[in-house]
Amino acid sequence: MRRLRFSRKVVVSSFFLVSVMIVSLGGLYVVSSAGDDTSPGVLGPLGVGPRWSAVIALMVTVALAWLTLRLVGSRLDRPPARPDAVLYGSFGLLLALFAVMDATTWSLMIAALWWSIAALVTTRRRIAGFTLVLVALLAVRLAFLPAPDALLVAVVAGYTCFLAVLFLVCNLAVLWLWEIAREATLAREARARLAVSEERLRFARDMHDLLGHSLSGIAVKSELAARLAERDPGRAAVEMAEVQRIAREALREVRTAVSGYRNVDLADELASVRSVLTAAGVHTTVTGGHAALPEELRPLAAWIAREGATNVLRHSSARRCDITLAEQDRACVVEVYNDGVRPGRAAVFGNGLTGLSERTATVGGTLSAAGTDDGGFLLRAVFPVRGDASPRQGAEAKEVAT
């Protein structure tokens, strides 16, 4: 989502430049017509001087630039409340500019910029109608110009048509990249939600298979025992003993299933962490591997790698993550380092790190989490390795780590 927000800012900024160009062309028209004593456009017969005509043209240009920027929202995720009103209102302002500027070079360039945006947000029939209206106005203007001036305006009009097509292609490329980034982000979120849903369904199916038959048997036998309680107490006691046996068996099966879900394989967890971080744009390297740790410490190391990756995704802007598993001086070390710690953010032990710290302490290890001098963040766990540990101690350590 961080990259998606950045992509949207880039797209909006690129289209904002189009609005800035429109306003700049209006400003150039004001400067070029300030010393012109002729009455421009249709405002001359109304008694409006050239300077006031230029000011009005600049005001209309600013309004057109604002509406043009609003049109971009129709292709992004924030469309205007009334897109058709914005479209036709901006076209009306463009026609007003043609009247005030008298179809000069400035008005033709502004029309090319507006057309390159409008072609992205409306139907082909509408943009064809807008194009025909603009061409008709230009033809009427050329009919009242002398031959040399008409030829010059025609050449400028042809060049602006080429620029309009070029602007349209560039805008399409920018929007295409934006849509790819948005679809990729939404697809990644959908894939994550689907994985969670599938895991919930799998757990629900397992619980149903484990408890459905057992609870049905408990219900039937307890009902039978209730009926036999008065006329055959001995038989009722036998049925209640059977209910107790079924309940204990169901409890054992549930504990076995939950233990299977809580146990994690270090190799699978490292592969999963690398896949998730890589998909999020974080270059991930794993040094060492599950063979560098004793078997009883691997589940706890897997939880540390998972928690470190979760913190990278939630609390950092990392571009690189290094996971290291090694054995050093009769101690096993697990490190998760990322280079994206946010400035001014102190290391806070939340529920995840607090739980890991407690689990690490139960096997005689230590857990630390702090920023580094190079602007990174290091999660480090150290476990002592006892060469004289008995198999029973190893089993107890494995159970505690699990």
UniProtKB/TrEMBL annotation:
GO terms for cellular component: membrane. CDD domains: HATPase_UhpB-NarQ-NarX-like. Residues 199-265 form the Signal transduction histidine kinase subgroup 3 dimerisation and phosphoacceptor domain. GO terms for molecular function: phosphorelay sensor kinase activity; protein dimerization activity. It comes from the Bacteria. The keyword Membrane applies. The keyword Isomerase does not apply. The chain crosses the membrane at residues 12-32, 52-73, 85-115, 127-144, 151-178. InterPro entries: HATPase_C_sf (IPR036890), Sensor_HK_TwoCompSys (IPR050482), Sig_transdc_His_kin_sub3_dim/P (IPR011712). This is Sensor histidine kinase.
